[in-house]
């Protein structure tokens, strides 16, 4: 999980400091070294009176960031996961630093923004989406659980919308991302160059007011009735029963999407979101996510899920356990147990 200097560009442009993710062939997937360099730069810019605003963008036409380098995560998990645990620690501490940053942090979530890309952007002061934005927390596809503070955002989304997107791993368009609290500002893609250019000299808030336009309607809003009813159930099994029994085509499709995911990851995800609803701070949820992600490194499903999606690309993961009924409450509880290293040291009271 190292990085090459060319993977990331850090520079100042007038009064704006710029973070440019530069791995377009890998959809700007994050390495450990990239995270460390970003955190170091943020600390330096916080103390630099010449920097008024920080701007995050990505190179390439496809999107801001596809998330972490999960191929590297797969390889390290097979060796015991020591490097992956350090990656998670530094990633989540960076997510919290972004959320607490004292200067305007503007994230341009153009195109695909998933997983770790959400962690770098959705906790900033200004979260910009365009008509091309596709925002997702797709972790259940690979036997993992929404992290990088994503479970915090999903847990506090309106009604049960967050539960729906967490379990199905579906993508949000720009309107959906704003409705769920992952973004707050819509700027048409054709205006992005002028918008980011203006941040070099202008006040961030004034620049946002100048370039922001009305966002497209949230596509998921029309589905709220069955989503709130079906996903309010206490178990994944009951959620599936409600989805299949409510007579709505979209609900049946959601059930089929959920059935393809790791049974263990589904049950832990639901438990994580319900617990995160009781958290009052992002720090509490990040502490919980660290426990869950580290526990996932010791499971069969994480390695198998990445194998199926990224390594062999057969899209045919063989989950173990293979059925929801085989995932016991004790197995779910194991994911929330304190880690031997003491965790992130951010929040007490998780139990």
From TrEMBL:
<feature type="domain" description="Enoyl-CoA hydratase/isomerase">
    <location>
        <begin position="17"/>
        <end position="336"/>
    </location>
</feature>
<dbReference type="InterPro" id="IPR029045">
    <property type="entry name" value="ClpP/crotonase-like_dom_sf"/>
</dbReference>
<keyword id="KW-0378">Hydrolase</keyword>
<protein>
    <recommendedName>
        <fullName>3-hydroxyisobutyryl-CoA hydrolase</fullName>
        <ecNumber>3.1.2.4</ecNumber>
    </recommendedName>
</protein>
<dbReference type="InterPro" id="IPR045004">
    <property type="entry name" value="ECH_dom"/>
</dbReference>
<dbReference type="InterPro" id="IPR032259">
    <property type="entry name" value="HIBYL-CoA-H"/>
</dbReference>
<dbReference type="Pfam" id="PF16113">
    <property type="entry name" value="ECH_2"/>
</dbReference>
């Amino acid at each position: 999980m190292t990085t090459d200097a060319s993977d990331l560009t850090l520079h100042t442009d007038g009064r704006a400091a710029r973070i440019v993710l530069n791995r377009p062939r890998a959809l700007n997937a994050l390495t450990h070294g990239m995270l460390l360099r970003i955190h170091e730069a943020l600390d330096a810019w916080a103390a630099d009176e010449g920097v008024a605003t920080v701007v995050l963008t990505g190179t390439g036409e496809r999107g801001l960031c596809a998330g972490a380098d999960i191929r590297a995560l797969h390889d390290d998990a097979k060796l015991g996961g020591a490097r992956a645990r350090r990656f998670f620690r530094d990633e989540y501490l960076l997510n919290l630093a972004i959320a607490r940053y004292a200067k305007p942090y503007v994230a341009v979530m153009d195109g695909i923004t998933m997983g770790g890309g959400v962690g770098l952007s959705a906790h900033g002061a200004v979260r910009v989406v365009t008509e091309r934005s596709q925002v997702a927390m797709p972790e259940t596809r690979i036997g993992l659980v929404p992290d990088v503070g994503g479970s915090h955002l999903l847990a506090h989304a309106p009604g049960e919308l967050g539960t729906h997107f967490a379990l199905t791993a579906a993508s949000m368009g720009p309107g959906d991302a704003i409705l769920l609290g992952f973004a707050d500002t819509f700027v048409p893609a054709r205006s992005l160059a002028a918008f980011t250019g203006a941040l070099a000299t202008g006040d961030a808030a004034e620049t946002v007011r100048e370039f922001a336009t009305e966002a497209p309607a949230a596509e998921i809003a029309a589905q709220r009735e069955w989503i709130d009813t079906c996903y309010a159930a206490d178990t994944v099994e009951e959620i599936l029963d409600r989805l299949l029994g409510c007579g709505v085509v979209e609900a049946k499709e959601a059930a089929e999407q959920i059935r393809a995911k790791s049974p263990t990851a589904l049950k832990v995800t639901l438990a994580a979101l319900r617990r995160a609803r009781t958290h009052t701070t992002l720090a509490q949820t990040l502490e919980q996510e660290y426990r869950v992600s580290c526990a996932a490194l010791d499971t069969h499903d994480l390695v198998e899920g990445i194998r199926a999606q990224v390594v062999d690309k057969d899209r045919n993961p063989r989950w173990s356990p293979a059925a929801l009924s085989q995932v016991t409450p004790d197995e779910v509880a194991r994911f929330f147990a304190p880690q031997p290293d003491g965790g992130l040291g951010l929040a007490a009271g998780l139990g």
